[in-house]
Amino acid sequence: LPRSCSYQKFASCYHCFYKLQPQLTRSIYDQFISQLQSSIKEEIQEIKSEGNLEGLFDSLDKIVEEAKDREEPAWRPSGIPEQDVQSALVPYLLKHRSYLRQLLREKEEENRKVAESVLAGRDKIVELQQLIQAHRQAWQ
């Protein structure tokens, strides 16, 4: 028990009663402490059952057991929200940037092929126009 719950402290609070009947004061103190302890235990048990703490403690124990095999340390917040958010977002954003750059390269390559196809089509059109012009002149 904490020092604030000592028998001496209790006796000093009820000094007049203690002077008259010290054994009865001790008995009352013992009963009070006993009832207080049992009341606290009942209260803790009630809180555990209401909040399903047994299951939560079991799952916490399981997490702790799984973490024992890890070699790298677990992430802990620094206490500065900006840094915590940045440390969580930067890897994601870098990965997303890499994905977007790859997508851009693919689209640029696709556009280059389409541009080549368009230029080839224009050359074919010019060639066909010249051929038509030559046939027209030959026909006239």
List the helices and strands and how they pair.
Blueprint lengths: L6 H7 L1 H6 L1 H29 L2 H16 L12 H59 L1
Distance between the termini: 122 Å
Structural class: mainly alpha
Strand content: under 5%
- Rg (C-alpha, Å): 43 Å
Helix content percent band: over 70%
**Count of the separate structural domains:** 2
Tags for this model:
140 residues; mainly alpha; 2 domains; 5 helices; 84% helix; 0% strand; cell division; PMF1 factor; mitosis; cell cycle; chromosome
Explain what the structure shows.
By secondary structure, this protein is mainly alpha-helical. It has two domains: 1-51; 89-139. Helix content is 84%, strand content 0%. The protein has five helices and no strands. The termini are far apart. InterPro entries: PMF1/Nnf1.
What's the short version?
It is found in: Chromosome, Centromere, Kinetochore; Nucleus. It comes from Campylorhamphus procurvoides. It contains 5 helices and no strands.
